[in-house]
Amino acid sequence: MATDGSPSADRPGRYAGGIVRRASRLGWLRVVLLHPVIARPGFWFATACGWAWGAVLGRFRLRRAGRLVVASGLPKWAYGQGGTTIGAVYLTTDNAGPSVLEHEAVHAAQWKKYGLAFIPLYLDAGQDARHNRFEIEAGLAKGGYGR
Ligand SMILES: [Zn+2]
């Protein structure tokens, strides 16, 4: 996932960050939200949403690539930058080379670990991919950042 990095684009990130910071003060809430019993259904829900979005907008051009489902042929407005992973579904037009898929598979694993909490956690990690811990973990070069 990625955005353009402009200052106004970071507003949702700061808002989400506030929520995450307040929640993380309540350690028990973090434990509950990130527990697999809560996180896993969130991952499934995100995957179902990504699948539906990719299937409809990509006219059912879905294929498996390891643990990822790749939905290609989507219009460019239907995802961020070169592609976006929602749950286990990678949405793109045609940006699906091997290194990109490796990068997106890490995002799918992050979705699986954090469930729906991945959304505010990702936004809180910052809009600049070079400093976003989830993008760094997925591999900046593989994701097409920093070239
Ligand atoms: Zn990424």
From TrEMBL:
Keywords carried by this UniProt record: Membrane, Transmembrane, Transmembrane helix
Ranges annotated as spanning the membrane: 38-58
Full protein name: Fe-S oxidoreductase
Native source species: Salinibacterium xinjiangense
